[in-house]
UniProtKB/TrEMBL annotation:
Protein name per Swiss-Prot or TrEMBL: Chromate reductase
NADPH-dependent FMN reductase-like domain mapped to chain residues: 4-145
Superkingdom as given in the UniProt entry: Bacteria
Naturally occurring in which organism (per UniProt): Bradyrhizobium macuxiense
Pfam families hit by this protein: FMN_red
Amino acid sequence: MAYNIVTIVGSIRKQSFSLKIANALAKLAPASLKLDVTTLEGISFFNQDLEAAPPADWLAFREKLQKSNGVLFVTPEYNRSIPGVLKNAIDVASRPYGKSSFIGKPIGIIGNSPGPLGGVSAVKHLQNILPGISGPILGQPEAYLNGVGDAFDDNGELTKESLKGVLQQYLGAFAAFIEKQNG
């Protein structure tokens, strides 16, 4: 049986490195994981006034998460934090109060950047935001992918062998974590 993992892409840019990394992860995933690469451009802004009759896009996103066996975040870093679109999606999925769609879902987090720091501040912010509204977060190995600007060809295919190895190592640890949490 393959575990269904919602793989949330933290950027909505069409050629984002996060999307390319998420797609590479889906191709590299072991047979025990099925990564459902999920972008966030269709999720409307969270507004508590809408909770009585939530928009269809909120309900669909929440249901997708609820049916999953885990969640993997792949995010860039914007201004030393996560992108606003990702925070909005987390806010939508964590509601209504006490009924977060992330509850009980094992979580993985991969930060990335074309620069030298690999999105470490964004990952740390997710590690601060998620406890209390999610299941356990994979602590080791941590994944801060730097220098990703030259890791893909013109078709978005991963060509940087060193990055491929890092992704495979992370996926192996994440697969074991998912199996343990869902076992």
